[in-house]
Design goal:
This is DUF4440 domain-containing protein. This protein is α+β, with helices and mostly antiparallel strands. Helices cover 39% and strands 19% of the residues. It has 14 helices and 15 strands.
């Protein structure tokens, strides 16, 4: 036993060291990245070829540079710590950004092995004390090992899903097809996946924020699980194509989402799902159900701005906004056939809603509680009702109430979209006197020939990259301030997130 003690310690250290080296050891057997991605440089002839005949460089598929082989970073690579395979670019990305984590896992394993050796290393000590120490050390080290290893595997699985999603293709105006990975550092992407009727409804809701999506360099890609499988056949106009793209290769999209849901034991059902990618191609949120577009804009799709953190003010009159809204309401795929008279009617409807919005802001900024109270419908905002039920305080529409904004606030860049008979939404960029910008949204219902306000809400929407942490929801009862409840955070608690978020 005296001779075995140092041998056991050496074996423990060797095993832990092997785990530290294992995740990146595959690079030593492959050519350097520069050599793999570029053709070999031409060199001077070698006079004696015999001395070099035994030296050859091969790629993983057995080909050599002379055979035209390429290093495939998307190929699977077995990861020792996770005991499963990931894409090579996933392992490379994770090793580059989490260099200390494999060492922590290896140290935990070393602690387990050392604790198991304690009874042998301390034979002359009280057996009960030694056994308790061994059990405690093994339990603590084992718990840390499992926790760190599980967190590492989950993070790598998330990166693996993001890289796999980057291989999917989207089509711009039915002409140019690009991989999502090619949009990195250029566009943010929100993918909607589900039955056609549900997804078209969510695209219509996104159309309300069309100008805000363009300002955020964001594109929406609808993917249908029925009725053709994907949106590649849906034509879009020039204006709409700035924010709405089509899914190419529908089977690849369907297979990806089915595997993503199946890996978490989820079924899509009739709810559908959405996934959002930031400029780097990393997931900023995902969930089953419908996205809340204003909250996603405020928390993940901030406007690009002018390079100095300021959102440029767009100056336009109501007539121009009504014409743009009429074009948006009649020119999208699936819209009813329209002639000049229909476009004129849509323009008149948009102008009437914008007039109601102007009347609302006139009463709001003037602090006229009576005029504001007369604008509302009888139904309320579900979010306000939930907040009231949970004990939140509502600021009523009364003189001097905090429901009214501070003096000096200006609504700018107002727009509208008539969603259907008696249903419309308006948005505006509110600019408080103290600085900053807010994205405001209003829902309107036509009651007895007049547009009545159903809901009013706003959320910070800043070009300096700041993330909104609160949103204000208002209805006929008043306003309530809510903490951020973006879809991902709600669904995390129910265990239905598609791509987990990690700090």
């Amino acid at each position: 036993f005296t001779l075995m003690r140092p041998l056991l310690l050496l074996a423990s250290i060797a095993a832990a060291s092997a785990l530290v080296v294992a995740p990146s050891s595959h690079w030593s057997a492959n050519p350097p990245l520069r050599t793999a991605l570029q053709p070999p440089l031409r060199t001077a002839p070698v006079r004696s070829r015999r001395c070099c005949s035994a030296v050859s460089m091969q790629y993983d598929d057995g080909t050599t540079p002379r055979q035209g082989g390429q290093y495939d970073v998307s190929a699977p690579q077995f990861d020792v710590l996770s005991l499963r395979s990931f894409r090579r670019d996933t392992i490379l990305q994770y090793d580059a950004t989490n260099q200390s984590e494999p060492l922590r896992i290896a140290l935990c394993l070393l602690g387990i092995l050392f604790s198991l050796c304690v009874p042998t290393l301390f034979e002359g000590t009280d057996a009960a004390t030694v056994n308790v120490a061994a059990v405690a050390g093994t339990a603590i080290s084992g718990t840390l090992f499992v926790r760190n290893r599980s967190a590492r595997s989950a993070r790598m699985a998330k990166i693996d899903n993001e890289y796999a999603m980057g291989d999917l293709r989207a089509t711009y105006r039915g002409v140019r097809s690009s991989r999502l990975s090619e949009l990195r550092n250029k566009r943010r992407v929100v993918v909607l996946f589900g039955p056609r009727d549900k997804i078209q409804r969510r695209v219509a809701e996104a159309r309300v924020y069309r100008r805000r999506l363009v300002a955020a360099d964001a594109v929406v890609v609808p993917v249908y699980t029925d009725g053709g499988g994907a949106s590649a056949a849906d034509p879009v106009g020039e204006a709409e194509s700035r924010w709405l793209w089509a899914a190419a290769e529908p089977e690849a999209w369907r297979s990806y989402f089915e595997a993503l849901l199946g890996g978490r034991g989820l079924s899509l059902g009739d709810e559908g799902a959405w996934v959002g990618l930031n400029y780097k191609g990393r997931s900023f949120g995902s969930a089953k159900g419908a996205p809340r577009w204003d909250e996603i804009l405020g928390t993940a799709l901030q406007p690009s701005g002018d390079g100095f953190g300021e959102l440029a003010e767009v100056r336009g009159d109501a007539a121009e906004a009504a014409r743009e809204a009429a074009a948006a309401a009649t020119g999208f795929a699936g819209a009813p056939a329209s002639d000049a008279a229909a476009v004129k009617a849509a323009e008149a409807a948009a102008a009437s809603v914008l007039g109601a919005q102007q009347a609302f802001y006139a009463a709001l900024l003037g602090g006229d509680a009576t005029a504001v109270a007369a604008l509302w419908t009888a139904d309320g905002d579900e979010a306000v009702s939930d907040a009231v039920a949970s004990g939140a305080r509502v600021e009523p529409w009364e003189a001097g109430s905090n429901a009214f904004p501070p003096p000096g606030m200006r609504p700018t860049d107002c727009d509208v979209l008539v969603l259907g008979e008696g249903d419309a939404m308006t948005t505006a960029i509110e600019r408080p006197a103290e600085g900053g910008t807010l994205l405001a949204s209003q829902r309107w219902r036509r009651v007895d020939g007049r547009w009545r306000l159903a809901t009013h809400r706003y959320i910070p929407w800043s070009a300096d990259g700041a993330t909104a942490v609160a949103t204000l929801r208002c209805d006929r009862r008043g306003c309530v301030l809510l903490g951020r409840e973006i879809n991902t955070r709600e669904v995390v608690q129910r265990g239905a997130v598609l791509m987990d978020k990690f700090g």
